[in-house]
Amino acid sequence: MAASDTGRAQQQIDEIEALSSIYGEDWCVVDEDEKIYCIKISDCLDQPKWTLCLQVILPPGYPTEEPPIYQLNAPWLRGQDYTELANSLEEIYLQNLGESILYLWVEKIREVLIEKAQSSEPEPDIKKTSEEVDEDDGEDFLLDYEPIQEDPIKMLNYMTSESQEDEELPPIHHGNPITDRRSTFQAHLAPVVTTRQVKRVLEKLYENKKIASATHNIYAYRIYCEDKQTFLQDCEDDGETAAGGRLLHLMQILNVHNVLVVVSRWYGGILLGPDRFKHINNCARNVLVEYDYVPSVEESSRQAGKSKKIRKDNKKRTEH
Protein backbone atom coordinates (compact mmCIF):
# COMPACT_ATOMS: atom_id res chain seq x y z
CA MET A 1 0.00 0.00 0.00
CA ALA A 2 1.40 3.39 -0.99
CA ALA A 3 2.12 5.98 1.69
CA SER A 4 -0.70 8.21 0.43
CA ASP A 5 -3.13 5.27 0.62
CA THR A 6 -1.99 4.51 4.16
CA GLY A 7 -2.50 8.15 5.15
CA ARG A 8 -6.03 8.21 3.74
CA ALA A 9 -6.88 4.95 5.49
CA GLN A 10 -5.70 6.41 8.79
CA GLN A 11 -7.71 9.60 8.19
CA GLN A 12 -10.81 7.47 7.68
CA ILE A 13 -10.16 5.49 10.86
CA ASP A 14 -9.64 8.67 12.89
CA GLU A 15 -12.80 10.29 11.52
CA ILE A 16 -14.98 7.22 12.17
CA GLU A 17 -13.73 6.86 15.74
CA ALA A 18 -14.38 10.54 16.42
CA LEU A 19 -17.91 10.35 15.00
CA SER A 20 -18.62 7.20 16.99
CA SER A 21 -17.61 9.07 20.14
CA ILE A 22 -19.70 12.14 19.30
CA TYR A 23 -22.92 10.38 18.26
CA GLY A 24 -22.81 7.21 20.38
CA GLU A 25 -25.65 4.78 19.75
CA ASP A 26 -26.91 6.79 16.76
CA TRP A 27 -23.76 5.82 14.86
CA CYS A 28 -23.31 2.23 13.71
CA VAL A 29 -21.06 0.10 11.54
CA VAL A 30 -22.91 -1.72 8.76
CA ASP A 31 -19.87 -3.36 7.13
CA GLU A 32 -16.38 -2.57 8.41
CA ASP A 33 -14.59 -4.29 5.50
CA GLU A 34 -16.56 -2.35 2.90
CA LYS A 35 -16.40 0.88 4.95
CA ILE A 36 -20.19 1.23 5.14
CA TYR A 37 -21.61 3.25 8.04
CA CYS A 38 -24.98 4.59 9.03
CA ILE A 39 -26.09 7.35 11.37
CA LYS A 40 -29.59 8.10 12.58
CA ILE A 41 -30.23 11.85 12.67
CA SER A 42 -33.28 13.52 14.21
CA ASP A 43 -34.55 17.01 15.04
CA CYS A 44 -34.21 16.41 18.80
CA LEU A 45 -33.43 13.67 21.32
CA ASP A 46 -36.64 13.45 23.35
CA GLN A 47 -39.58 13.01 20.97
CA PRO A 48 -38.28 13.50 17.43
CA LYS A 49 -40.80 14.33 14.70
CA TRP A 50 -38.43 14.13 11.76
CA THR A 51 -35.79 11.40 11.42
CA LEU A 52 -33.42 10.47 8.62
CA CYS A 53 -30.73 7.81 8.17
CA LEU A 54 -27.56 8.80 6.36
CA GLN A 55 -25.69 5.80 4.98
CA VAL A 56 -22.18 6.36 3.64
CA ILE A 57 -19.56 4.27 1.90
CA LEU A 58 -16.02 5.60 2.17
CA PRO A 59 -14.07 4.86 -1.05
CA PRO A 60 -10.28 4.34 -0.86
CA GLY A 61 -9.65 7.88 -2.14
CA TYR A 62 -11.69 9.62 0.58
CA PRO A 63 -11.12 12.31 1.84
CA THR A 64 -8.33 13.67 -0.37
CA GLU A 65 -9.41 12.44 -3.81
CA GLU A 66 -12.95 11.02 -3.73
CA PRO A 67 -16.22 12.06 -2.06
CA PRO A 68 -18.19 9.65 0.12
CA ILE A 69 -20.89 7.62 -1.61
CA TYR A 70 -24.07 8.34 0.31
CA GLN A 71 -27.74 7.47 0.53
CA LEU A 72 -30.45 9.42 2.36
CA ASN A 73 -33.14 7.15 3.77
CA ALA A 74 -36.46 8.48 5.08
CA PRO A 75 -40.01 7.60 3.94
CA TRP A 76 -40.92 11.30 3.66
CA LEU A 77 -37.79 12.31 1.74
CA ARG A 78 -38.54 12.54 -1.96
CA GLY A 79 -38.77 14.98 -4.86
CA GLN A 80 -37.67 18.52 -4.15
CA ASP A 81 -36.82 17.80 -0.49
CA TYR A 82 -34.32 15.15 -1.58
CA THR A 83 -32.84 17.30 -4.32
CA GLU A 84 -32.34 20.34 -2.06
CA LEU A 85 -30.71 18.30 0.70
CA ALA A 86 -28.45 16.44 -1.75
CA ASN A 87 -27.38 19.77 -3.28
CA SER A 88 -26.54 21.11 0.17
CA LEU A 89 -24.34 18.11 0.95
CA GLU A 90 -22.54 18.35 -2.37
CA GLU A 91 -21.97 22.08 -1.82
CA ILE A 92 -20.38 21.31 1.57
CA TYR A 93 -18.11 18.76 -0.13
CA LEU A 94 -17.00 21.29 -2.77
CA GLN A 95 -16.35 23.95 -0.13
CA ASN A 96 -14.14 21.53 1.86
CA LEU A 97 -12.29 19.60 -0.85
CA GLY A 98 -9.77 17.15 0.56
CA GLU A 99 -11.10 17.41 4.12
CA SER A 100 -13.15 15.09 6.33
CA ILE A 101 -16.76 16.21 5.89
CA LEU A 102 -19.07 13.63 7.51
CA TYR A 103 -19.53 15.72 10.69
CA LEU A 104 -20.49 18.76 8.58
CA TRP A 105 -22.97 16.62 6.64
CA VAL A 106 -24.62 15.24 9.76
CA GLU A 107 -25.03 18.66 11.36
CA LYS A 108 -26.40 20.13 8.11
CA ILE A 109 -29.01 17.36 7.95
CA ARG A 110 -29.90 17.96 11.62
CA GLU A 111 -30.34 21.67 10.87
CA VAL A 112 -32.75 20.85 8.04
CA LEU A 113 -34.75 18.50 10.29
CA ILE A 114 -35.00 21.12 13.03
CA GLU A 115 -36.25 23.66 10.48
CA LYS A 116 -38.93 21.22 9.32
CA ALA A 117 -39.97 20.50 12.91
CA GLN A 118 -40.45 24.23 13.54
CA SER A 119 -42.41 24.77 10.35
CA SER A 120 -46.11 24.10 9.94
CA GLU A 121 -45.51 20.93 7.90
CA PRO A 122 -47.43 17.87 9.13
CA GLU A 123 -45.40 15.16 10.81
CA PRO A 124 -44.23 12.36 8.49
CA ASP A 125 -45.77 8.89 8.52
CA ILE A 126 -43.08 6.76 10.10
CA LYS A 127 -45.02 3.53 10.61
CA LYS A 128 -43.24 1.78 7.77
CA THR A 129 -39.67 2.66 8.70
CA SER A 130 -37.27 -0.13 9.50
CA GLU A 131 -33.67 0.42 10.49
CA GLU A 132 -32.23 -2.99 11.26
CA VAL A 133 -28.46 -2.86 11.06
CA ASP A 134 -25.86 -5.07 12.68
CA GLU A 135 -23.06 -3.39 14.54
CA ASP A 136 -19.54 -4.74 14.12
CA ASP A 137 -18.17 -5.14 17.61
CA GLY A 138 -14.55 -5.53 16.53
CA GLU A 139 -13.94 -8.69 18.60
CA ASP A 140 -11.51 -10.01 15.97
CA PHE A 141 -8.96 -7.36 16.94
CA LEU A 142 -6.46 -9.23 19.11
CA LEU A 143 -3.45 -6.98 19.60
CA ASP A 144 -3.19 -4.33 22.30
CA TYR A 145 0.23 -2.69 22.08
CA GLU A 146 1.64 -1.87 25.53
CA PRO A 147 5.22 -0.57 25.04
CA ILE A 148 7.51 0.85 27.72
CA GLN A 149 6.43 4.30 28.87
CA GLU A 150 8.42 7.43 28.19
CA ASP A 151 7.94 10.73 29.99
CA PRO A 152 5.64 12.81 27.73
CA ILE A 153 6.71 16.04 29.44
CA LYS A 154 10.11 15.71 27.78
CA MET A 155 8.39 16.11 24.42
CA LEU A 156 7.51 19.70 25.32
CA ASN A 157 10.96 20.78 26.49
CA TYR A 158 12.14 21.77 23.02
CA MET A 159 9.12 24.07 22.65
CA THR A 160 9.53 26.00 25.89
CA SER A 161 12.25 28.25 27.18
CA GLU A 162 13.33 27.76 30.78
CA SER A 163 14.59 31.34 30.89
CA GLN A 164 11.14 32.80 30.32
CA GLU A 165 8.95 33.79 33.23
CA ASP A 166 6.84 31.11 34.87
CA GLU A 167 3.33 30.93 33.56
CA GLU A 168 0.44 30.90 35.99
CA LEU A 169 -0.82 27.36 36.53
CA PRO A 170 -4.31 27.11 35.00
CA PRO A 171 -7.11 25.34 36.89
CA ILE A 172 -7.18 21.58 36.27
CA HIS A 173 -10.47 19.68 36.10
CA HIS A 174 -10.99 15.94 36.28
CA GLY A 175 -13.71 13.99 34.46
CA ASN A 176 -15.61 10.92 35.59
CA PRO A 177 -13.68 7.67 35.09
CA ILE A 178 -14.82 4.89 32.75
CA THR A 179 -13.93 1.28 33.65
CA ASP A 180 -14.09 -1.65 31.22
CA ARG A 181 -12.64 -5.12 31.90
CA ARG A 182 -10.44 -3.81 34.71
CA SER A 183 -8.96 -0.99 32.61
CA THR A 184 -9.85 2.50 33.83
CA PHE A 185 -9.83 5.71 31.79
CA GLN A 186 -10.08 9.24 33.20
CA ALA A 187 -9.81 12.60 31.43
CA HIS A 188 -8.26 15.78 32.81
CA LEU A 189 -8.78 19.23 31.30
CA ALA A 190 -7.11 22.63 31.66
CA PRO A 191 -7.54 25.93 29.79
CA VAL A 192 -4.21 26.88 28.15
CA VAL A 193 -3.02 29.71 25.91
CA THR A 194 0.74 28.91 25.73
CA THR A 195 2.86 25.78 25.44
CA ARG A 196 4.50 26.70 28.76
CA GLN A 197 1.12 26.39 30.42
CA VAL A 198 0.71 22.99 28.78
CA LYS A 199 4.03 21.91 30.28
CA ARG A 200 3.10 23.27 33.73
CA VAL A 201 -0.22 21.41 33.73
CA LEU A 202 1.48 18.14 32.72
CA GLU A 203 4.09 18.57 35.46
CA LYS A 204 1.35 19.25 38.01
CA LEU A 205 -0.61 16.18 36.94
CA TYR A 206 2.51 14.01 37.24
CA GLU A 207 2.91 15.15 40.85
CA ASN A 208 -0.18 13.03 41.54
CA LYS A 209 1.16 9.52 42.20
CA LYS A 210 -1.94 7.83 40.81
CA ILE A 211 -1.78 9.75 37.52
CA ALA A 212 2.00 9.25 37.31
CA SER A 213 1.48 5.50 37.70
CA ALA A 214 -1.00 5.27 34.80
CA THR A 215 0.03 2.95 31.98
CA HIS A 216 -0.53 5.77 29.51
CA ASN A 217 -1.20 9.50 29.81
CA ILE A 218 -2.38 10.50 26.34
CA TYR A 219 -2.79 14.21 25.64
CA ALA A 220 -3.64 16.72 22.95
CA TYR A 221 -3.96 20.49 22.95
CA ARG A 222 -5.12 23.24 20.59
CA ILE A 223 -4.21 26.90 21.08
CA TYR A 224 -5.54 29.63 18.79
CA CYS A 225 -2.93 32.26 17.87
CA GLU A 226 -5.05 35.31 17.13
CA ASP A 227 -2.23 37.41 15.68
CA LYS A 228 -1.42 34.76 13.05
CA GLN A 229 -4.97 33.37 12.87
CA THR A 230 -3.58 29.85 13.10
CA PHE A 231 -3.73 26.96 15.57
CA LEU A 232 -0.82 25.74 17.64
CA GLN A 233 -1.60 22.11 18.33
CA ASP A 234 0.14 18.86 19.20
CA CYS A 235 -0.49 15.48 20.77
CA GLU A 236 1.29 12.64 22.57
CA ASP A 237 0.52 8.90 22.53
CA ASP A 238 2.60 8.06 25.63
CA GLY A 239 2.93 4.49 24.36
CA GLU A 240 -0.70 4.00 23.26
CA THR A 241 0.03 3.98 19.54
CA ALA A 242 -2.03 6.53 17.52
CA ALA A 243 -4.21 7.47 20.53
CA GLY A 244 -2.89 11.04 20.69
CA GLY A 245 -3.62 11.68 17.02
CA ARG A 246 -7.14 10.33 17.41
CA LEU A 247 -7.70 12.57 20.43
CA LEU A 248 -6.46 15.62 18.54
CA HIS A 249 -8.69 14.75 15.58
CA LEU A 250 -11.70 14.63 17.90
CA MET A 251 -10.82 18.11 19.22
CA GLN A 252 -10.47 19.39 15.65
CA ILE A 253 -13.88 18.04 14.65
CA LEU A 254 -15.45 19.58 17.76
CA ASN A 255 -13.61 22.86 16.99
CA VAL A 256 -12.34 23.38 20.55
CA HIS A 257 -9.35 25.60 21.25
CA ASN A 258 -7.26 27.01 24.10
CA VAL A 259 -7.57 23.75 26.00
CA LEU A 260 -5.43 20.76 26.95
CA VAL A 261 -7.02 17.33 27.41
CA VAL A 262 -5.14 14.47 29.06
CA VAL A 263 -6.61 10.96 29.26
CA SER A 264 -5.04 8.57 31.77
CA ARG A 265 -5.38 4.85 31.22
CA TRP A 266 -4.65 2.27 33.90
CA TYR A 267 -4.30 -1.06 32.09
CA GLY A 268 -6.10 -3.92 33.87
CA GLY A 269 -4.48 -6.89 32.17
CA ILE A 270 -7.26 -7.67 29.67
CA LEU A 271 -6.87 -6.64 26.03
CA LEU A 272 -9.60 -4.20 24.94
CA GLY A 273 -8.78 -3.99 21.24
CA PRO A 274 -10.24 -0.94 19.46
CA ASP A 275 -12.60 -0.31 22.42
CA ARG A 276 -9.72 1.46 24.15
CA PHE A 277 -9.82 4.26 21.57
CA LYS A 278 -13.58 4.58 22.01
CA HIS A 279 -13.16 4.99 25.77
CA ILE A 280 -10.34 7.55 25.36
CA ASN A 281 -12.46 9.69 23.02
CA ASN A 282 -15.61 9.31 25.14
CA CYS A 283 -13.75 10.42 28.29
CA ALA A 284 -12.35 13.40 26.44
CA ARG A 285 -15.66 14.44 24.92
CA ASN A 286 -17.49 14.07 28.25
CA VAL A 287 -15.09 16.39 30.07
CA LEU A 288 -15.23 18.94 27.21
CA VAL A 289 -19.03 18.93 27.43
CA GLU A 290 -19.00 19.13 31.23
CA TYR A 291 -16.82 22.26 31.21
CA ASP A 292 -18.71 23.94 28.35
CA TYR A 293 -16.12 23.65 25.60
CA VAL A 294 -18.62 21.65 23.57
CA PRO A 295 -22.42 21.69 23.73
CA SER A 296 -24.08 18.35 24.30
CA VAL A 297 -25.88 16.85 21.28
CA GLU A 298 -29.18 17.93 22.86
CA GLU A 299 -27.94 21.48 23.48
CA SER A 300 -26.50 21.64 19.98
CA SER A 301 -29.92 20.76 18.57
CA ARG A 302 -31.58 23.48 20.67
CA GLN A 303 -29.02 26.08 19.57
CA ALA A 304 -29.40 25.16 15.91
CA GLY A 305 -33.18 25.43 16.25
CA LYS A 306 -32.93 28.80 17.99
CA SER A 307 -30.63 30.24 15.32
CA LYS A 308 -32.97 29.01 12.61
CA LYS A 309 -35.93 30.67 14.33
CA ILE A 310 -34.02 33.97 14.60
CA ARG A 311 -33.17 33.87 10.89
CA LYS A 312 -36.78 33.14 9.96
CA ASP A 313 -38.04 36.00 12.16
CA ASN A 314 -35.53 38.39 10.59
CA LYS A 315 -36.58 37.27 7.12
CA LYS A 316 -40.26 37.96 7.95
CA ARG A 317 -39.40 41.46 9.20
CA THR A 318 -37.41 42.15 6.03
CA GLU A 319 -40.26 40.99 3.80
CA HIS A 320 -42.69 43.28 5.62
Automatic annotation (TrEMBL):
The keyword Manganese does not apply. It comes from the Eukaryota. Residues 305-320 have a biased composition (Basic residues). Its main location: cytoplasm. Residues 14-116 form the RWD domain. The keyword Cytoplasm applies. It is found in: Cytoplasm. SUPFAM superfamilies: Ribosomal protein S5 domain 2-like, UBC-like. GO terms for cellular component: cytoplasm. Keywords: Cytoplasm, Repressor, Stress response, Translation regulation. Coiled coil: none annotated. CDD domains: RWD_IMPACT (cd23821). GO terms for biological process: GCN2-mediated signaling; regulation of translational initiation. Residues 298-320 are annotated as: Disordered. InterPro entries: Impact, Impact_N, Impact_N_sf, Ribosomal_Su5_D2-typ_SF, RWD_dom, UBQ-conjugating_enzyme/RWD, UPF0029_Impact_CS. Pfam families: Impact_N (PF01205), RWD (PF05773). Interacts with GCN1; prevents the interaction of GCN1 with EIF2AK4/GCN2 and inhibits EIF2AK4/GCN2 kinase activity. Interaction with RPL39; this interaction occurs in a GCN1-independent manner. Associates with ribosomes; this interaction occurs in a GCN1-independent manner. Associates with actin; this interaction occurs in a GCN1-independent manner. Belongs to the IMPACT family. This is Protein IMPACT. It comes from Lepidothrix coronata (blue-crowned manakin).
